[in-house]
Amino acid sequence: MYSQVNDDYCDCPDGSDEPGTSACPNGKFHCANKGHTPLDIPSSRVNDKICDCCDGSDEYSGVIECPNICDELGKSAREEKQRQAEIARKGFANRKVLAAEGQKLREEKIAGVAPLKDEREKLLPKKEELLQKKNTAVERETTLKDKHREAWMAVSAEKKKEKANKMFKEIDINGDGKITLDELKKIEYLDSDHDGSVSDDEAKIFLSVDEIDADHFLNNTYERLKTEKVAYEDFKSDQAREQAEKDAQEKHEEDHDDLVADEDKADTEVYPDYTTTPSPPSEEENDDVMPPYDEETQKAINEAEAARKEYDEIDIKISSLDSQIREAESFIEQDFGADHAWATLKGKCFELTEKQYTYKYCPFDKTVQKDKNGYGETGLG
């Protein structure tokens, strides 16, 4: 019966008999909301003293008055909808531009691959030719440098032998062909603590056997004594230089005291130069330095260097072409959308700073977070 509709008693299981009351927990109330958006609300919200419908129809009991604000809300909603539509229109227009640019860029990449490959193919025979030229030049360079080094080592070994024999005879005071501890103690430059005499301990450092013969001296002792001698000579040279500087400074101070009373003389006084000249390398040090290469070897070195440079230039050029080809082919194969709209974003990055961090987004590459204080980046995927 119609009298049972909206009688605040739920008769139908689906709640359809009470669309205007809150009697049925599963009932629905329809808000017409003319001028805005229609709305279905649970029947439990009808006459609950809360305005749910913009037209106020859900509170028809009159307990509270709900104003009809549907026209006002509808106007705002329509304006927002128009705003969103305008954004979509502009976005679509921008996408069309991006798609056109992306398609053009893709076509340029496709068109550019073939010339790059052609140029690479043309350079390969020249690269092989220059490689052979370089290998030949380097082989000749190596041969002549080895020859020069071996010749120097032979001469150096002979000089070493002569100087070792000379030093051996100088130390072998009694001429018995052997060097003893007592003979080593007479070598001034073995006084490592500079106390004026060579102790047993200082001498024994160089005496690995009871007595040193000529062969043992050449192979085991000579280089060590030579090093010790050079160090001692450097020490004595430093001492002499320091003393000379000290004497010169004292003389300068004396002269300065004499000049204080005579200002005119002081104006024309030329002070001596107290700088010292470093001692020239000793003969022993020169023996360890290989002499300059002869003209033929130096010419081979220069030619090898020129051949290396020539080969490296074409090798770098081909490597650059390979890199450009890989980049272009990768670009062509990458998915930038059906219309290629996102192709122009490849290689670009965008940054956003929020409080302490700067976020950097590089499409098709990486996203990182950077601390504004200058710390390293953290990858975000």
- Range of strand content: 5-15%
Distance between the termini: 66 Å
What about the largest sheet? 4 strands, antiparallel
Shape: elongated
Order of helices and strands: EEHHHHHHHEEEE
Kindly report the spatial arrangement of strands forming the biggest sheet.
Answer: 3-4-5-6
Count of beta strands: 6
Overall structural class, as computed from helix and strand content, comes to alpha+beta
Region (Disordered): 236-298
GO molecular function, one term: calcium ion binding
Domain EF-hand: 159-194
InterPro entries: EF-hand-dom_pair, EF_Hand_1_Ca_BS, EF_hand_dom, Gtb1-like, LDL_receptor-like_sf, LDrepeatLR_classA_rpt, PRKCSH_N
Helix and strand arrangement:
Blueprint: E1 28-31, E2 39-42, H1 70-171, H2 181-184, H3 200-204, H4 214-259, H5 263-268, H6 283-287, H7 295-333, E3 350-354, E4 357-362, E5 366-371, E6 377-379
Q: What features would you describe in this structure?
A:
With 381 residues, the chain is α+β, with helices and mostly antiparallel strands. The chain has a domain at 347-381. The protein is 54% helix and 7% strand. The chain is built from 7 helices and 6 strands. The strands form 2 sheets. A 4-stranded antiparallel beta sheet has the order 3-4-5-6, with no helix packed on it. The chain has a two-stranded antiparallel sheet with strand order 1-2. A hairpin with a 2-residue loop joins strand 3 (350-354) and strand 4 (357-362). Helix 1 (70-171) packs across helix 4 (214-259) and helix 1 (70-171) runs antiparallel to helix 7 (295-333). It starts with 27 loop residues before the first strand and ends with a strand.
